[in-house]
Amino acid sequence: MASVSAPAADYAALALDIKRWARELGFADCGIAGTDLGEDEAHLKRWLDDGHHGEMDYMARHGDKRSRPAELEPGTLRVISVRMDYIPPGTSNAWNVLRDPDAGYVARYALGRDYHKLMRNRLQKLAERIHGAIGDFGYRAFVDSAPVLEKALARNAGLGWIGKHTVLINRSAGSYFFLGELYTNLPLPVDAPAGAHCGSCRRCIDICPTQAIVAPYKLDARRCISYLTIELRGSIPEELREPMGNRIFGCDDCQLICPWNKFAQDATEPDFAPRHQLDGAKLVELFGWSEQEFLQRTEGMAIRRTGYEGWLRNIAVALGNAPGSVQVREALLARADHPSEIVREHVAWALARHPKTR
Predict the structure, then answer these.
(1) Residues comprising the binding site?
(2) What is the DSSP letter of 158?
(3) Where are the domains of the chain?
C-alpha cells in the first residue's frame, strides 16, 4: 500500500464520513480498529494446537497472517469493520421449524442470497467514496474470503463483544449479522473496543445439541453442527447424528437462546429473503431434489458450499431422526443405492432407525 498523508483533524472528519457512507450503503454499523491482535493470536494458536479446527486446514495454512493484518496486506494501519443484519421480516419462526421433525432446518443466514459478493461490492463502493474524498489510498476488502480474524477486529472496532459461544454480539442488535472489512493504510482514529456483557449466563453452552462449546469462549468445531453439515466432507460421527435432529445446514441454537437477540434487527436487504421456502421446507421434498435441481435452486446461495453429496448426507440424518412413516422410508429407500458411498452409509443408518412395519 502506498503511503498517504493528511492533517490529523482531516482523518477524524474522514472517519465520521466513512461511518455515514457505510450506513448509506446499507451496512448497519461501522467502526475502526488498529491491527494489534496479540491476545487473539495466542487464543487461535491454542485452539489449533488442541485440534479443534477439525478438517479446516485453512485455519492454520497462512501462519500468523490471520492475526497480523499488516503481514497479510503490507502497509495496513487500520481496519474498517462493518456489519449487516441478515434476518428479513416474515421469515418463519426458527423454534417452530426446529420443533417440526418433518421439516429441514437451515441456518437463518443461509436462507437467501450468499452474502459474500453482496457485501464485498458494498465495501468496494465504500472504498470508492473514500477515494472520491481524498484521492488514492491503499485498501483491500474482505468478506470471509481470506485469513482474517474478523470477530476480533469487529470487537476492537466497537461493533460488539465475542460471546461464550464465540459469536460476536452487539448490545443493540444481537448477533444475527454478517461482518466485512476494509484493510487500509489510512491512519484513522480508532474506536474503543466493545466491553463484554455475557456475565454469568451460559445458556448457549447448555443448549448446544452436541455440546460443542466445551468451555466458555472455546468451541470444538469437530462437534459443531455447522461444521458437521458444511465443512466436513466425510462421514458424520454416529454419536453426533441423533443430536443433529432436523438441522440440515448449519445450526443457530446458541444464538436463538441468547438473551441479547431480543434486540436483533430486521435485515433491510431484500436479497436475504428466504428462497424456495427453505425456512421450513419438508425433508422428504428436499431429499427428492436431483443434483440439477439442487444446483439450480441453490444458485447464488451459501448452501452450495455443502455440495449435493453433503446435502443428501445431511438430510438422510435428519430423516433418520424424523418420525417413522411410509413417506420417510420410501424416500430413504429411493436413495439406498446412491452412487455416493457417503450417501449410502447415512441412508442405511437412517433406514435402520425406521424398520419396516406391517
Answers:
(1) 66, 144, 168, 179, 198, 201, 204, 208, 224, 226, 251-252, 254, 258
(2) T
(3) 8-91+109-184, 203-259+274-352
282 bridge partner residues: 103
Give the residue from 152, 158, 150 showing the smallest Cα distance to 179: 150
- Catalytic residue positions? 144
Q: Residue written as cell 455440495? A: 307
Q: Determine the Cα–Cα distance for residues 113 and 69; give it in Å rounded to an integer.
A: 28
Q: Phi and psi dihedrals of 211, rounded to 5?
A: 55, 50
Its pTM stands at 0.94
Q: One-letter amino acid identity for 239? A: E
The binding site for [4Fe-4S] cluster consists of 198, 201, 204, 208, 224, 251, 254, 258
Radius of gyration, alpha carbons of the chain:
22
* Burial class, 340, CB count within 10 angstroms (exposed 0-12 / middle 13-18 / buried 19+): middle
| Average pLDDT over every residue of 85-89 | 94
Q: Which residues contact 173 (CB under 8 A, 6 or more apart)?
A: 28, 29, 83, 85, 263, 264, 265
| Closest CA relative to residue 114, chosen from 249, 18, 222, 223 | 249
Report in angstroms the alpha-carbon separations of 110 from 94, 106, 107, 278.
13, 7, 6, 9
Instruction: Give residue for cell 406391517.
Output: 358
Residues annotated within a binding site for cob(II)alamin: 66, 144, 168, 179, 226, 251-252
If you average pLDDT over residues 78-104, what whole number do you get?
97
Query: So what's the pLDDT on residue 1?
Result: 65
Give me the CATH topology for the region 8-91+109-184.
NADH Oxidase (3.40.109)
Strand partners, 162: 168
